[in-house]
Amino acid sequence: MNRKIISWGMLMGCLLMLAGCGQKQPQTKIPKDNAEYLTITTQYHKNKQNIELLHNFLKDSMVQKAGIYTNFNNNQKKSDNATGHDMLSESSGLWLEYLAQTHQNKAFREFYKNTKKYFDQGRQFSYRIDGKTKKKSDVNATLDDLRIIRALQIYAQNNSKKYRYEAAERFAMLQTTSIQKARVLNFYDVRTKKASNESSLAYYDLATLKYFESVSKKERGYYREQLKLVEKGYLGDIFPLYAPSYNWKTNQYGTKNLNTSEALITVLHLAEIGKMKPETVSWLKMQIDNKKLYNSYTTAGAIEDHNQSTGNYAIAAMIFARNGDRKYYQKAMNLVWDDQVRNKNSKIYGALGDTKDNDAYSFNNLLALLTSQY
Question: On the CB side of 359, how many CA atoms lie within 13 Å of its CA?
Answer without folding.
Answer: 12
